[in-house]
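Appendix B. Chain record.
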Amino acid sequence: MAFKVNDGERGDWSVLLVSGELDLVSSPVLRRRVHDVVAEGRHSLVLDLSEVLFCDSSGVGVLIASRRLIRSCQGHLRVVLPARGAVDGSHVNRVLGALGVRRLFDVYPDVMTATEEDPEEEADPLSA
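Structure tokens predicted for this chain:
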């Protein structure tokens, strides 16, 4: 499967649907697309990784860098990873868990759920 990033919007959220293998070759493409979204002034982003079949350390690096970029803009990043049982679960979910970085991300089972709440209604994690 070829690597692709398709973009869209759902309510106040920009959505990037990522498919294929997120690796050393393809991760710069995703990095650029995230930067493009932010440069356009959109700071509420959902990364739909449900169709990512493989993710290596460079892919994880892009996800962490995307989180850092969005947070620097006081934005919101949500990640879609399929729940366990959905075709062996999500490879990305397992990789993030194994590296101990899954807790850094707000994870949702699908785009519909990820975009239900208005980003402005999100609680500030620093105020808790």
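Further analysis of this model is presented in Appendix C.
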